[in-house]
Amino acid sequence: MILFSVMELLYRFQKLCQIETRRGLVLVGVVAVSHLLFQSLLLPYGNSITSLPPGGKVPGDDKYSFWTSRSYSKSLMIRNPRTINASDFTNTSVLVEGDNDEEDIRVGDMGHLNVLDEEDRDVDSGFTSENDVDRIERLVFDSVENQENTNVLESDSGGSHVIILENISKPDLDLSADNMQEEDATVVPKKIEDVYTAFQSPLSASQTSSLLKNITHLNDRESNARYSVGSAAFESDLVMPKNNSAMTSDTGKKKLRCEIPPKSITSLQEMNRLLKRHHSSPRAMRPQWASVRDQEILAAKFQIRQAPVAINDKQLYAPLFRNVSMFKRSYELMKRMLKVYIYKEGNKPIFHQPVLKGLYASEGWFMKLMERNIHFVVKDPRKAHLFYMPFSSRMLEYALYVRNSHDRTNLRRFLKDYTENIAQKYPYFNRTGGADHFLVACHDWAPYETRHHMERCIKALCNADFTTGFKIGRDVSLPETYVRSPRNPLKDLGGKPPSQRHILAFYAGNMHGYLRPILLKHWKGKDSDMKIYGPIPSDVASKMNYNWHMKSSKYCICPKGYDVNSPRVVEAIFYECVPVIISDNFVPPFFEVLDWGAFSIIIAEKEIPNLKDILLSIPEKRYLEMQLAVRKVQRHFLWHAKPMKYDLFHMTLHSIWYNRVHQIKLR
């Protein structure tokens, strides 16, 4: 009887357990469905199911265990159906930091478009503000700071802000070894540590560990897409949305801010502030896919910041530089590792035909020396850190501009078509939006000709005007050099010693622009110490020509003409005369590395009436220091038929390299 009772109790207990089990399964099912529904509504990225299995992983090939959502945010890429979406191949867990680098612009005098200072821009509706992104970024980094292989990449310029979850399953993209073009193993290091070995630079274990926590570990394959170089199609299973285009059509409407004038910069202090801000918070867009070349640049950036102190360097005069140690280290790394690919597209005379004489000779000399260089130039674009677009802005104006038409639209369209052709033929422009491409142009119209379609390229411009779109910290101020003899660009170099310079200040030239008449109004014939002329009078020229005045003056006045730049800046250095720059919004050459306060005077345009008082207030000792610095800096502003260390060719290329290095963030 007792046995029967026990068996009955066990039977009832079993039935009760089965009922509770069914209830439990129903409850689990409800929770799972709720979980999926919740994530599908709040996180519509196709990844909600991946958080259900243990560890948040879906069984599969770990090689492709990442997948991010497609982002249909605004892009500044050239329209190219063979180009992949930037967010489709992000192989790490990141917070995408939004950065809409589009500036509001206004129509200025003579049809120029003036770019507003970044601090005055309105945030486009529909995009998260930078302050919001910063708050999100801090929260996310607090939660992942102890995790390995986590990185923050720079955002696409479209301004989308996406928190990408870790360990997301990526669908099979059919990227087998057979249909993927791999790079030579000797070219692409499998790990970032290999980059340091290639640099042959001593790095401590702590330094290496710190760096590795802040940069992306790359696969030995440079990208997760199939592509071929040359005219072959750039293939991908994923393509960009049709509306993703870098081009602003000539007939399209651009939001104008006519009511807000651009801010002016009139002092070195203001320019220094902008440079520091852009280098500390670069505004480069996130590449479409990862590249070993970017990782090499990241490693170089780390080494530049950790540069050993350069003591008593016999080749470099330390007072000329913002930081001579960083410059020296950066220059050494450039010489050791930088590779440049030059596009072969384009016909003469606009392309590949350098002009070596006259006012715009700088772009021609750089083109000639760059195309003939065997140290930096590579034939395989996959090995390149930078891409050179070798056109002459002077020859573009000469070949296409209709005289007296006052219409330069056809010049801009010509370069637009050239850029689109490159973007369709090669994958490299679209990868970065042109951020690793550069151009060198000295004609005053170059900022207009390259607007929009080359907006993200590094522009080395003589017309380095802050109000017309020149970006301090990204673009390069190219010295405007008037070359009179291509066979001997150093002819008549030098000047008198300080003790024989009896003229306080000198200027002579045509009355271009509004500023020079103001200068003459206040100082022409008003003071014997101030030799201020328009065109040099014939009676003066017969005895003492222009060069003689430059060589005999303490200070050489360099006022702007129609545009902010003037060849007199380099001429003053050429003749060892301290340049006095009077041109608001002009960014001096190689501003990112040179300390112009050491060898020049920069005066606001409104201070012209006080010009003599300002010059006389400079102590003699200070003048001698500046004149010595002018003689020392001269070597950095000279063209040579065969490039020499630290000369104008190398300084131009270095500034392009240096600004590219600072565009990439080091987290």
From TrEMBL:
Pfam families: Exostosin_GT47 (PF03016). GO terms for molecular function: glycosyltransferase activity. Residues 335-616 form the Exostosin GT47 domain. Keywords: Glycosyltransferase, Golgi apparatus, Signal-anchor, Transferase, Transmembrane. It is a single-pass type II membrane protein. The keyword Transferase applies. It comes from the Eukaryota. The keyword Transmembrane applies. One of its GO terms (cellular component) is Golgi membrane. InterPro entries: Exostosin, Exostosin_GT47. Its main location: Golgi. It is found in: Golgi apparatus membrane. Belongs to the glycosyltransferase 47 family. This is Exostosin domain-containing protein.
